[in-house]
Amino acid sequence: DDFGLKNLYLNYQIKEKSYKTVLLAGTLKNPLSFDYLLDLSKYFLMTGDRVVYWTEISDNNHHKGQSEKYYLRFPSMEEIFKEVDSQEKKNQNAFKKKLKEVQKLKKDVEQKRRDLARKEKVDWKDKKDVKSFLKKQKETNEEMKKMIDNYQKIVKKYEKNNIASDELLKKMKKIKDLMDEISDQKLKDAMKKLQQSMDSISPEMMKKALENFEQSLKDYEKKIDETIKLLEKIKKEQEVNKSQKMMEEIQKQQKELLKKTEKKSTKKNSSKAKKIKIKPKMLQEAAETASIEKKK
């Protein structure tokens, strides 16, 4: 504003103790965005601990303002697994639902192919049905892509939180690669030929295109079914992995607690360093508060 902003501070409070202050910037002409790496390794933070932080700023007339308070919480291993388990179950149910839809579509395509065998000419209803088949499969392909993307996010969450062994991660990534092959070029070609058959009045041409499409749907169905079985199989390995990781977490906490009690120096743990982004919203809140104080 006209009075200029200066002295941007980051205040943070750990485990309900007295708060600490860090000067982020001296003079500011306009609210900016800051990335600040707050190293929390020396505080022996454990799962469930909470960090509160907020910004404070003043103008050249010494009016001060502060942002809302924001919170960081270190989730427990159990909480991380619970979240991942929920996402996996939801995604697996989506695959099962999609399998039933593909089976229904395959049955409808087969019936239409048999109907055409008794016809001499394609009518408007045949073309309408084929158009509906293509629309449903296109929607299925798009939804399948989202489901595969969701599984990729799940794999990344396992990797990011270090809650899976290298062997398990390798198997999960292999399943992701198999998922990518579900909607293959053969299916796309079959859909293209079926689309082209709508321009012909020959039932033989449409029948042939439906046969190719039906065969592609059988392959599609088989790949989805195999994916579901692999997901169910790897789930058992994930449960074993979960037990191992939970035990490791308990042992880790016990060691950290022992170190804290004995007050021995420890090496910095990068996993306890959090990058706090000072958002423009926080600076705006602080600046507006300072402005209100100035008008009093």
Low-confidence stretches: 264-272, 292-296
User: How many strands appear in the DSSP assignment?
Assistant: 7
Calculate Rg over CA atoms.
Answer: 30 Å
Estimate the helix proportion, in percent. 55-70%
Assembly of the depicted chains = single chain
**What count of helical segments does DSSP give?**
6
Class from secondary-structure proportions: alpha+beta
Largest sheet: 5 strands, antiparallel
Specify the overall morphology.
Answer: elongated
Concise structural overview:
With 296 residues, the protein is an alpha+beta fold.
Structure notes:
The chain is α+β, with helices and mostly antiparallel strands and 296 residues long. The strands form 2 sheets. Strands 1, 2, 4, 5 and 6 form a 5-stranded antiparallel beta sheet that branches. The longest helix is centred in the C-terminal third of the chain and has 60 residues. The protein is elongated and about 90 Å long. The C terminus is likely disordered.
Secondary structure layout plus pairing:
Layout: E1 5-14, E2 20-28, E3 34-39, E4 50-59, E5 64-66, E6 70-73, H1 77-116, H2 124-160, H3 166-180, H4 185-197, H5 203-262, E7 273-278, H6 280-295
Antiparallel strand pairs: 1-2, 1-4, 3-7, 4-5, 4-6
Task: Give keywords.
296 residues, alpha+beta, five-stranded antiparallel β-sheet, 7 strands
